[in-house]
Amino acid sequence: SSLHFSADCNAVLKALQPIFQEQGMTETVHNWEDHGYLATYIKKNGSFANLRIYPHGLVLVDLQSYEDHTKGRDEVDQLLNKVEERMKELFHGNIKRVKRLPAILRGGVIDRYWPTADGRLVEYDIDEVVYDEDSPFQNIKILHSKQFGNILILSGDVNLAESDLAYTQAIMGSGKEDYTGKEVLILGGGDGGILYEIVKLKPKMVTMVEISFDK
């Protein structure tokens, strides 16, 4: 969770300290003359919080809970609600922005978080690992998503999902090209989706040429 405002760092720390102390959390505070405060709070059950207060008016609250998912989420929500309420009281509602991010589930049996090519993190509703093997060239994963169907991931990069059929069809001409009885050349067929779809259209011959790694 993050809050933007303009205020004295020490005042913010003193206002928020009781919230964490009421939870029976052990406190450690680090302060820098020009860089604000970092306070850490540790609970007996292993949960902990980092409270970072910056002089320019940014407060970051990071919480990690080791309880089961539902109980841990409720615990985090309650604590963040108290932090936001106390901040609004302290500054009489004069806070520019409050942003609360959803919890990241770490250490799960199935990894749901995958980066995009432009550096963003996407959470998929993955419920099954269909395939996971190392080829001589790369790691190959096929994960099943309730929303997107099977997803192909090569060495950690999301390549294609069953829901991307429209992309394959667009490459083939979106039905404008008649492949019946024709000889077709596919250059760089990758996942084989074009080949799989084009044989349904009764071509005479299909040749797929892919990059060879043989020396």
TrEMBL record:
Residue spans crossing the bilayer: none
Family (UniProt): Belongs to the spermidine/spermine synthase family.
GO biological process: spermine biosynthetic process
Keywords: Polyamine biosynthesis, Transferase
Protein name, as recorded: SPSY synthase
Classification via SUPFAM superfamilies: S-adenosyl-L-methionine-dependent methyltransferases (SSF53335)
Keyword Transferase: yes
The gene coding this protein: Sms
Matching Pfam families: Spermine_synt_N, Spermine_synth, SpmSyn_N
High-level lineage: Eukaryota, Metazoa, Chordata, Craniata, Vertebrata
Species assigned in the record: Atlantisia rogersi
InterPro entries noted in UniProt: PABS (IPR030374), PABS_CS (IPR030373), SAM-dependent_MTases_sf (IPR029063), Spermidine_synt_N (IPR035246), Spermidine_synt_N_sf (IPR037163), Spermine_synthase_animal (IPR015576), SpmSyn_N (IPR040900)
